[in-house]
Write a structure and sequence with these properties.
Elements (H helix, E strand, L loop, with lengths): L1 E2 L4 E3 L7 E15 L5 E8 L3 E2 L10 E14 L3 H7 L1 H27 L2 H13 L11 E4 L4 H8 L3 H13 L3 E5 L2 E4 L2 H8 L4
Helix pairs in contact: 1-2, 3-6, 4-5
């Protein structure tokens, strides 16, 4: 299926009849707060599974970020799929475990890290979506999400995110070519900051 930019394809609280695999583009995940505001809980891109760990209803909403293509699989057909492709069962278990690990990492991000560590963590997280990232060399990142989404995801204000990115630029840790393109000039040091070691 193809989803246009800004269109939702998973509604929080809706019956979790299907799970999805992102095959192209990017997606933002969010939950709705009681007052109607949205909290960004993550970003997904090619190869990521969504809704795999859902039981009866989705615990989050999902929306295309600049357009996305996905494969949708009904949970009811899972048994037939794993019988036909035995190696798939192992992969699905790995993905469900990864979903839980990401949630635990997010709790640490919001609960224990400083603002500087949060922004560094976000940049390193984006590296993990690249094919074989080498943190000993400069890494180019494409950030299609607006700064407001990044700030929301990190539990910070947009001003704080901008201030920290400017500080990283001043320290020659990053270069900013445009609002959507950042080069990590010293990714190993950014990783050290993310881990709270600096």
């Amino acid at each position: 299926m193809t989803v246009a930019d800004g269109r939702s394809f998973i509604e929080e609280g809706a019956p979790a009849n299907d799970f999805f695999v992102v095959t192209g583009g990017r997606v933002k995940l969010f939950t709705l707060l009681p007052d109607g505001r949205r909290q960004i809980t993550g970003f997904a891109e090619g190869g990521d599974f969504l809704g795999l760990a859902a039981s009866t209803s989705y615990a989050f909403g999902a929306e295309a970020l600049g357009g996305a293509t996905l494969c949708r699989f009904p949970h009811a057909g899972m048994q037939r799929l794993t019988e036909r492709f035995p190696s798939l069962e192992h992969r699905l278990r790995e993905e469900a475990s990864r979903e839980l690990a990401l949630m635990q990492a997010r709790m640490t991000l919001l609960g224990r890290k400083t603002a500087r560590e949060r922004v560094a963590t976000f940049l390193i997280e984006r590296c993990q979506h690249l094919e074989k990232p080498d943190l000993s060399h400069p890494v180019e990142l494409d950030l299609p999400m607006p700064r407001t989404d990044i700030a929301d995801y990190l539990g910070l204000t947009i001003e704080t995110v901008s201030r920290i990115l400017s500080a990283f630029k001043k320290e020659k840790l990053i270069s900013i070519r445009s609002i959507t393109h950042i080069t990590l000039l010293m990714p190993e040091r950014i990783s050290t900051i993310a881990e709270g070691m600096e």
